[in-house]
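ok trying this again, last paste got cut off
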Amino acid sequence: MNRLFCCLSLIVLTATLGGNGGCSRQYYRMKADSEVYSVLRQGNNDSRWKVNNPKITPNTASRMFDPFNPDCEPMPVDDPAAHKKMHHVAGMRGSPDWYEHGRTHSVENPHWRQHLLVNEKGEIPLDKEQAVELSILHSPEYQSALENLYLAAVRVSQERFRYDVQFFGGDSLLYTAQGQARGGGSSATTLRNSADIRAERLFATGGQWVAELANTVTWSFSGQNSWSTNSLLSTSLVQPLLRGANRKVVLESLTKSERDFLVAVRQMVLYQQGHYTKIVTGQGGRSTPSGTSSASNLPSSSGGFYGLLAEQIRIQNQRQNIIVSEGNLSRFQAMFEAGQLNNISQVEEMRQNLLNSQSSLLRSNNTYRGNIETYIRSLGLPPDLKVDISDPLLEQFQLSSPTLTLLMDDFGELLAILRKKDQPISEHFREAINNIIQRTEGEIAILEQDLEVLKKGMPERLASLKSLEALFAERIENGERIDSSVYDTEEFEKRIAKLRTEDIPKTLSRLHAAFTLLDLIAQSDEQTLRTIIQHRAYAPSVLDALKTLELSDLINSPATKTDSDASEAVLPQNAFNAEPPKLPITGAQRLLAELRQKDEYRDWIRRVCSVFQYELVSLSLMQTRTRLDAMTLTPVSVTAAEAFQVASEHRLDWMNQKSQLVDTWRQIDITADRLKGGLDLTLRGELGTVGNGGFSADNGRLQVGLEWDSPLTRHTEMMNYRRSQIAYQNARRNYYTYIDGVQAELRNILRNVQMRQVEFEINRNAVRVSAIRVDVTQLEMEKPPQRGGKIDPNTSTQLINALNGLMNSQNNFLDTWVAYQTQRMLLDLSMGTMKLDNRGHWIDPGVMGTTASAVAPPKLLPVPLLDIEPPRRNRRYVEETVDESLETEN
């Protein structure tokens, strides 16, 4: 037995001293992760709140990844003045061991940029999905949310451990030498080794069990050397009978941590859903799970990824407006030189509008670049990264193809060369004309594809208009005046039929007629074409083309033709800026000068190209009208009551609110328990050794009894009890206020959805009307004035207003669609039905309504807590309260 205790003491001492007083840092870190991830797996097995990848170690491609050993982190960069305090503080020398793990100058992962995928321009292609994935990979806020969930699981692990059997062990080795005066007349020298092993257990009933084995071995080196052992085995059990005896009191801390962990898991799922919504739309973010880890204060990008795409489209609309404005300025300049304008004010008005548009474009581009930097910072990335924002999502709002815009720009430059009389027409001009014809044929093919899309989408458009008719009727009943053509299906079908059978065929016919004339220009040398023009020796196809394009003045003979075109080459291009002539010039002299400058060949080509430029504008408008009517919205037909029912069953934060309300309610009983007196049943037993022998009953003791603590002073407990009751009443009010907030939120979202549906159709018609207005205004400008007549002085103002109106209506149409998509996503989030795939992307539910929703709404709403009948034991209290309230009212 003595040898056993000696070996036990040696084992305990070795275990205590071994490993520098314990296991390694790595062991404890990995063991902690093992236990916490086990808790996370157990709490993450419900499909309603499944957290994607809850591990807190960042990916190696992340900017947050730590390439160093987390258990031996090198020292990061320190402030020089503060660093001195680590070596000398308050006149004392500091530790020299601060550099034992090395030093580093990099706080972020030094290799994270190598994992970025870039294009040939060195830019990161950024679409909606890539933006979400980059934010999950690099966002400090997202990482903090995961760490908060981890910390919530840590608390669960700690609480569970309290109910495990816990072992403790220690050993002490003491050498003692004392003098004669202290040793009673003789000196003494001893060596004592004491070993202690203890086991403890806390039971769900509140009982605490402790078992302990202690052994002491003493060697004496004074007089005759001797040694002795003393061992004691003891156990005790304390079971409360009054205060602290109820399971709901004993298990409260564990129950609270488990419930808090469930709340944290749900909150993490909510955060992931809100994170996606915020990255894409700039709205709908949710708070992170509770914890002590702080989230990074990243900037918030208003509008999100949708906002950046919308800015792109608006900038493109502005560029297209500038291209058309440049062409119009050139035309007005030529008309002024040809004497078709009363004064130069219309030219300068067009120039001023162009300059204002260019200035606005500069500001828009500058704002857009700043918004890009803010956005990529919200993803957790530095603002110096070059990104290419692109996504096919908003390509449908390119109502005119970008290639057609570029084609119009290039042809405008060719026409500008024609209008410069001092520059000859080069042979490259004919090659450029051939290129223009081929590119225009490609744009016609694109228009035919757009027509097929419109044809296929007709049933969906008609169904959408019919479903919206009730919404329009409701708004009209509320006093709102809405044009019936916006939602009239017959009007829509007539409009599409006219577009397909009249407007587009007319534009294509005129374009092919223009092709015939342009082909004549491209295939004929200058001398041949001059002869044809001079003698009007047109082939039948060319003659038909001229008649189709209403160029009658180019058909008549030179002697009898009208001067409605008036030849734009009357004066030099800078005539209106030239100095006044020194000698007066008569009208006859001016006419002779004009005749000398007239070049019928060049004017014929210019006139044909001017008409073709107008036909390109018409083609662009046909594209706009076709694509405009092909666009549809994904329907939402959920009522406010249905949305509220679905939310009451599926919103995770609503579940958390219920849980937290009950947590507050439980505290009433918990604090009430502390008002009781203490009555504990105790059981204690000890068994020791006799001499150097074994355990003997002669050295044992058994004790059983009751310990009573009377509740004479309970002031603090009393106040805590009353505080818990007031806290519960406050929680009740917060709960139904929260429900009111959910209902208001859903009703507001649905109102916005309905408004955007109505507004979408109104803005669609506004774009269509604006396009027709531009078409009509351009046509009026292209009509040659009567002989000796002038262009209407209001033409420039009308054209500017028409172009700006078209651009503004296009932007409004785009903004309405983005707002509708945002509200539809927020509705899915607010109803609690939002689902993300394993990569963190939204699974679009498609049509949202009672017949199409994947989530069936519950039949009944949750019964309010106050409607539950109180238990029979509380009936007397309820009756007395009711009687008192009645007496007060009487």
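PB: full thing came through this time. The CA atoms of residues 27 and 467 lie 64 Å apart.
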